């Protein structure tokens, strides 16, 4: 089923389906996967700001904050992304990291799993990125696949965001951030 944002961001449901098929091809089986969000990376700050305006019409703002040295915004979509039986409720939009060149496009999906350690232990032959596995707020692991990345974490992003907002953990985007360069 197509989504109203597909013409702007690219076909989202096929992206999700392709990554899930590639995940299955690795041998990882996750019955009824919970894909809590997908991520689109903007190539420029101008594109990021333009897409923020588009996404504001398509969803409810959950948070915008500085993560990894650049703004990232998350919206709860009014219309879920439907990829077969999988429903994706949120979209994350990442601004480019300063000093890096990024290609615009759909970048990753994130799945909620019961245990990161068990997933890594069950599939030791797979090249998981485990650098964030010990993060205290939202630990995750990643797996690069031909069509993009799948990240695995323990709680839905909307729940993590609600906690960060409630505890004041969100790092605000500096007021002059978009005036730089």
UniProtKB/TrEMBL annotation:
InterPro entries: DUF991_YecM-like, Glyas_Bleomycin-R_OHBP_Dase. This is VOC family protein.
